[in-house]
Write a structure and sequence with these properties.
The protein has about 120 residues and is α+β, with helices and mostly antiparallel strands. The strands form 2 sheets. A 4-stranded antiparallel sheet has the order 2-3-1-4. A hairpin with a 7-residue loop joins strand 5 and strand 6. Helix 1 crosses helix 2. The chain is globular.
Amino acid sequence: MAKDLLTTTLPSRDEFARAVAALDDLGVEYQRIDPSPPLARVGVPALVMDPDTRARLVDTAAGVVFSGWVEHRPATAAMPEGPEPTVAGPCFERAAIMVLQPCVADDTKIRSDCALP
C-alpha cells in the first residue's frame, strides 16, 4: 500500500459491512484491522486506504456513515492474545465510535468519542 494512508472506523458493524462491500466492488486495495479475540466485544474494526481509494469509496458508497478519517499510524502496542471472552449476562451489548479525528490538544494522539445506545 502507499505511504500516505488514511484510517477510518464506522459507527456500526452494518455500516462497516457496507463499506467493505463497496471497496470489494471497486476492486481496490485496502487493509482491514480487526480487534484481537480478547477485544472482539469492545474493539471496532477499522479500514486503511490511500486518499484516492477513500475518494472513490466516498463517491461510490453514498449513504455509508464514516466516523471520521485520520492519518494512519501503525500500531506501537500489541493487542492482547487469547480467546474471546464469554459473557454471563447482557451487561454490555454495544458501543459505537461516533467521531474519529486527530486530538486538538496533542496531534500525536487520536480522539474518538463513543456512544452507548
